[in-house]
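Supplementary Text 2. Reproducibility record for the structural model of the 205-residue chain.

All settings were left at their defaults, and a single model was retained for analysis rather than an ensemble. We include the record here because the model underlies the residue-level annotations in Supplementary Table 4.
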Amino acid sequence: MSFFEDQILDIIGGTIGSNHLSNIDDAALNDYLMFSARTVIDLLDDTLLNKHTATAATSSSVYLAANKRVVSVTLGGYGCREIPFGLSGQAADSNSIHFATAKSPVYFINKANQVSVKPTGTEADVNYIAYPTLDADGNIAIPNFPDSAEYAVVLGAAIKVLQNVLSNYIHVDEDSELAGTMQVEINGLQAMYQHEMMKFQGAKS
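Retained model, structure tokens:
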């Protein structure tokens, strides 16, 4: 399998740093690739991601999930139900219908990306997918990620590259003909991307 940079260039043509890609460097390509990977991870179904998760055990029932997507949480062998942060107080109130119990645990994520599990006192397992750090000309695969979804990541990165080129045609070159041609190409890739992502709606494996 070829590096991600080669896969992207196979779609859009050209060479990084030259001709219509003259304002694209390796750092920009890495950013587009990582942004696309993060977007795809956020859109994929939990059931598809579950088999690729890493697990962090936390005895304090609080876990910092920065740069991660939390897929599921278990407590004492029971799956936790995610609740909005606004119901966190009720989860600890025995008089509330949202009161969390050992057999009906819950979790919530606050604005600081901290995962809190109720009830407390028992070790919780947080299953997550880390948003990857990628090198377009050094990686050929995304770790802990469904192989079947990698093409969508490549398409997403290719779209971001061409959107950059389009912006250059409009605001720097002021070439409406090239801009129109580029927009048609972007529209085609976006349709391919949407088709690719539709494959994973409710995917089970």
